[in-house]
Amino acid sequence: MTNASRRQFLRRLAALSGATAGTWLLAACGESSPPATQESMPTAAESATAAREPATPASESAPSAKPSDSSASVDKPYLVVARGGDQPEELVRRSIAALGGMERFVKPGANVIIKPNICVAYHTYEYAATTNPWVVGALVKLCREAGAGRVRVMDSPFGGTAEQAYARSGIQEQVLAAGGEMETMQRLKFVATDIPEGKDIKNWNIYDDILQADVVIDVPVAKDHGLARLTLGMKNLLGVVEDRGSMHRNMGQRLADLTSRVRPALTVVDAVRMLMANGPTGGDLGDVKKMDTIVASADIVAADSYAATLFGLQPADLAYITAGAAMGLGRSDLANLKIEEIAVGG
Amino acid sequence: MSPTARAITPRRWTRLRKLVQVLALAAFVALVLFGRSGALPPDIANIAMRLDPLAVLAHLLSSKVFLAGSALALLVVGLTLLFGRAWCGWLCPLGTALDLFSLRRMRGKRRAPSDAWRGAKYFVLLTLLVAAYAGNLTLMVLDPLTIAYRTLSTSLLPATDQIVRLVEQALYAVPFLRQSVGTLDGLIRPALLPVDPFYYRDALLFLMLFAGIVALNAFAQRFWCRYLCPLGGLLGLLSKVSLVRREVIETQCTHCDACARRCPTGTIQFTHSAGGSESAARAASLPPGASDPSECTMCLECLPACPQGATAFTLHKAPAQWNRYDPNRRMALASVATAALGIGVLSSELAAGRDTPHWIQPPGARENDLLSKCIRCGQCARACPTGAIQPALFEAGVTGLWTPVLMPRVGYCDYSCNACGQVCPVQAIPPLPLEEKRLQVIGKAYIDTTRCIAWADHVDCIVCEEMCPLPDKAIKLEVAEVRTADGAPVTVRLPQVNRDRCIGCGICDYKCPVNGQSAIRVYAPPA
Fold it and tell me: What one-character DSSP code corresponds to residue A316?
């Protein structure tokens, strides 16, 4: 009896190890396939002047840039700035509507990831270290209204746990109320990913779901940063990679390289409150400037360029904007862009 | 048999006990599992330690402060006064683990060590209490609950996590399993297992110590509980006057020895089965089949073992007999001498004379005389969300063995967290409100300019400045014109620490991208 059950146990163990070994083998075979589909993306240079549209969920897994899209942007502004009022949600709604509505970015059933800046668990949103909760909530609502399948919101804080940070930032409450999900970013899903257009980095561990999502919406809070000078849309993408410390070497180029791979379909810069100093962590209300402004564009470089001017800087002052424009990821020549300014009363 | 016992058959009694044991062990494991900050209210998370009369008594003697929350231990004291060492037989997680890994086959027919060794646990207990009165709690590393908690939290749980991680990674690499593995991972993390793996210093050592305690079972069943456990000793002394005790109904007993052979602590004595000479002497003065309530764990195994139904658990008022191995004057003197010598030697250690620079204590602990209050339970290390709190090895000398020490390169003291002080069952780490904790200085950061990327390689990095959580950052960047080794001028942002503001949280040390040892290190603050 004892011997038999032991034998059974050993047999099961052998079967299990066999299965695991088989898995490894399968894994080894499967590794080359997912990046291959990404490499066939059109180069960024072609799409530089085009407003990007996300691919429909059925056809491709990553937002792709199509040169023919430029016709779509003829009558619509390239970038929208909404100002005023005391309702961040209203600012978001008006700017997205001006850009052509969320339907332009989110097709019915689309798998959407919204990436706010929830970098630390230290402070509430008033300190402007994290994105305004109502801005994120409004985007979740708009995505749901556009018929999105799944709307997830995520970031990986560097100070404190995601659980704490999601709660303290107030973002969790607004996202859940708007019908979105908060996802704790899982170590498992950071996978070594080729960056075919990368100039400095050719491969980095990037969050798989971000790459697989139909639509990525980048929602940075505009704030001060010691090295990058400002944390905006491109800098906010640092939250989707591992080994962020090393990203700080030659940061401008590396952020542009990362952006070339992640390609948010829409960038919404939250300048409702801007952190003017002691960023990115903040903690002093004296460093916070209330601007009640939202900058939105399908072009992340353009959105960042405009947001830089809110701090009195020029786009060329930020290394990642320069690098991004040089790579053709978007435009920083604000004077040549069709910009719509919306004044929201209140 | 007592009236209550008659209602339930003997077999059911032991089954009930086993059920209670498994539930109690499961509850304890759950407390460890959910011991991370935020999973449970701290007063629930630390409930096991506050139930532990040894931890509470030792802390009381050492700190001379009685904490209201510690009154919970009176429950176990009350339980013991009613039912003897029922804690050991029914509830103790370590005891249950020793029952699960009984090593019956390895033990075979080996004769247990002499009864005289039963005195060892009283010697450990008395030495521990005397040392505690003198302000030393080092021996609390031998408390069974601290052993169980440490083993689970620093080795078994992280090991389980690593195994799960390996399996998940293997399966995640398979394209068609990717989604379901991702979903599963999202369900178990952070609910059950940590998002980022935890690493503990000496994880293997803690497992080996636990394995060693289990291995002793090969010499005698529940070796630890019989001969070594100081909590068992404390409850054993209380059991001398416990109300319900085991007895043998002489008129029904046939001296068959069945109960003595079944007894897991070997306390049931018949003249012909007695081991050493002391046992024979004791057995001669007692009725056949008698047992020592200080050794009996009330496991009730003797009930179904007796073919005659001659075992009963009845009410007793008179104190039980004092045995040769029970504490006596000589043992008391020996433990005083041992405690004195031990404290003397530990106090002459280098670490006692001069703080080691790496003895960085949890917030507020330094000002609170941690060593004389900490019961070495390791709950703070478990609660710490970044894994910064590690069991001290020699940072505080042998005196401070396995007290909490922060290792900034392993984890940082999170600016949004005060969990360690909240969960500490004896307030050795003070329960500071978050606002106060944020001001608490636990160390000071110093830049190693020979290794810093900006200072030594003249390349912008600023990670330490970026990470500094203070509203007015304690690390500032100075834009400087410097010359490289080749004489070329470059502009670089050099980090500088404002030591007046630095609180020593260590996030700069932790995040510094320099390989191996950080180029910005946190040291214990000046006294």
Answer: G
Query: How far apart (Å, rounded) are the C-alpha atoms in residues B147 and B157?
Result: 14
Average per-residue pLDDT for chain B? 93
| E strand or H helix at B214 | helix B203-215
A249 touches chain B (CB under 8 A): yes
Task: Count how many pairs of residues, chain A against chain B, have C-beta atoms within 8 Å.
Answer: 134
CB contact under 8 A, A161 and B195: yes
Q: Which among B471, B184, B37, B407 has a CA at the least distance from the CA of A161?
A: B37
Residues of chain B contacting residue A283, judged by C-beta atoms under 8 Å apart: 469-471
Contacting residues of A for B170, CB less than 8 Å apart = 20, 23-24, 27
Would you call A283 an interface residue with chain B, using a CB distance cutoff of 8 Å? yes
Q: What is the DSSP letter of B271?
A: G
Q: List all residues 6 or more positions away from B354 whose beta carbon is below 8 Å from its beta carbon.
A: none
Identify the closest residue of chain A to B459 by CA–CA distance.
A249
Nearest to B170 among A23, A183, A186 (CB): A23
Contact assignment for A159 to B463 by CB distance below 8 Å:
no
Strands A221-225 and A266-275: parallel
> At residue B301, does pLDDT exceed 50?
yes
Query: Measured on CA atoms in the order A35, A41, A44, A47, is the torsion positive or negative?
Result: negative
Torsion of CA B34, B39, B40, B43, to 10 degrees: 90
Token pair of B128 as six digits:
């521990």
Alpha carbon distance A23, B250 (integer Å): 66
Of all residues in chain B, the percent with pLDDT exceeding 90 is: 89
In this predicted structure, the answer to whether residue B72 has a pLDDT above a threshold of 90 is yes
Instruction: Write down the ipTM of this complex.
Output: 0.87
For residues A94-117, one letter each, b for 16 or more C-beta atoms within 10 angstroms of the residue's C-beta and e for the rest, the string is bbbebbbebebbbbeebbbbbbbb
Query: Distance from A286 to chain B by nearest Cα, in Å?
Result: 10
Closest-CA distance of chain B to residue A156, Å: 11
Judged by CB atoms closer than 8 Å, whether chains meet at B471 and A282 is answered as yes
Return the higher-pLDDT residue of A38 and B71.
Answer: B71
Report the pLDDT value the prediction gives residue A70, as an integer from 0 to 100: 44
Q: How confident is the model at residue B284 (pLDDT cuts 50, 70, 90)?
A: low
**C-beta of residue B307 within 8 angstroms of C-beta of residue B256:** yes
CATH class in words for A3-33+73-343: alpha beta
> Mean pLDDT in runs of 10 for chain A (346 residues)?
69 82 64 40 39 39 41 76 94 97 97 97 97 98 97 96 96 98 95 96 97 97 90 96 91 97 97 95 96 98 97 96 97 97 87
Q: Delimit the domains of chain A by residue range.
A: 3-33+73-343
Contact yes or no for A160 and B195 at CB 8 A: no
> Nearest chain A Cα to B185, which residue?
A186
pTM exceeds cut of 0.80: yes
